[in-house]
Amino acid sequence: MKLEQLVRKNIQNLKAYSSARDEFKGEASVYLDANENPLNGPYNRYPDPLQWKLKERVSKIKNVDVHKIFFGNGSDEPIDIVYRVFCEPTVDNVVAIDPSYGMYKVCADINNVEYRQVLLNDDYTLDAGRLLQNIDSNTKLVFLCSPNNPSANILNKEEVKKVLTSFDGIVVIDEAYIDFSIADSWLPELDKYPNLVILQTFSKAWGLAAVRLGMAFAAPEIISYFNKVKYPYNINILTQNFVLEELDKQDEKEEWVKTLIGQRIWLEEKLQTVALVEKIYPSDANFILAKVTNANKVYNDLVEKGIIVRNRNTVSLCKDCLRITVGTETENKALIESLNSL
Ligand SMILES: *Cc1c(COP(=O)(O)O)cnc(C)c1O
Predict the structure, then answer these.
(1) What DSSP assignment string belongs to 81-123?
(2) How many structural domains is the chain composed of?
(3) Which of 26, 100, 187, 324 has the fewest other C-beta atoms within 10 Å?
(4) pTM above the 0.90 mark?
(5) Residues 229, 81: contact at Cβ < 8 Å?
(6) Whole domain around residue 262: which residue ranges?
(7) What is the Å distance from ligand 1's center to 101 Cα?
(8) Domain check: are 227 and 288 in the same one?
(9) Binding-site residues, ligand 1, Cβ < 6 A
(10) For residue range 136-166, what is the model confidence (pLDDT) as tens digits?
(11) Ligand 1, residues 80, 100, 203, 243: which to mutate, most atoms within 8 A of Cβ?
(12) Do 190 and 266 fall into the same domain?
């Protein structure tokens, strides 16, 4: 893979914005370089554009070099950035599994890039051969999501490997739910695949959806292009400092994950016994996809009872399916009681 053949010409030639904080990086006693207001500390100064402190911390936790890390305003930002770096609007295309996370297509539409959806098998497993058949010389990206949303399953490692080794473009693997799976992350294999971009997030297992911090991991050459294209100060200082503190809660996070997996197993058992539930799909995530007798009706009946699940009835391969997030013990019991009363 030649990165220069994949990156849009205008991005290769782009002279990125150089901020005051980019041009002088050391420590000084007097800062008169950024037109900041000196009278309103401590939030008057522009934050570190490349979030080095946070990267060093995440680097240790994830065992990944700092230069292979990118932070974004949620995963939404790196999802959008891969399009802006690699896909020439109206010319290039992207291949993705279907059903999957809605933001991949929204970003394709915003960037005016053709989005080719390739159906998973009926049991939501990946057929790499079928996916690869949809690739042509203008395909720049492949989007995979594992564990996949909304189907909740991890994608088979061998099939993913076929995509990684056969496709001469960028493969994005979205691992938003990887903490809830017994399967391994692709992160330790990053160096083997120069075309791999892994997405993770603080929104799920870390319980920080409101904070908006997403992570992308890739080869330093790819990360450099992301940095070139991102807004100069894309992660504000409140987020940088706050997440740095939250990272002390690693043990607590592991406990949350254990608790939620325990609750998922409980929910799976209980859902099997609910009359209107026809099928439960295996989950590697913090949610369960369940096929019910009539998803629209069950969804509305649950709303009446003040319980909101995600109706996936109109999504490919998900007719009459509800996506149910694993909640607290009390919330899960309320759900089962309500379902039994319908
Ligand atoms: C929830 C989710 C994310 C997280 O998005 P953020 O913008 O980081 O909150 C990413 N990918 C998938 C598939 C998700 O379901």
Answers:
(1) HHHHHH--TTT-EEEEEES--THHHHHHHHTT-EEEEEEPPTT
(2) 2
(3) 26
(4) yes
(5) yes
(6) 251-341
(7) 8
(8) no
(9) 74-76, 101, 145, 149, 174, 176, 201, 203-204, 209, 214
(10) 999 999 999 999 999 999 999 999 999 999 9
(11) 203
(12) no
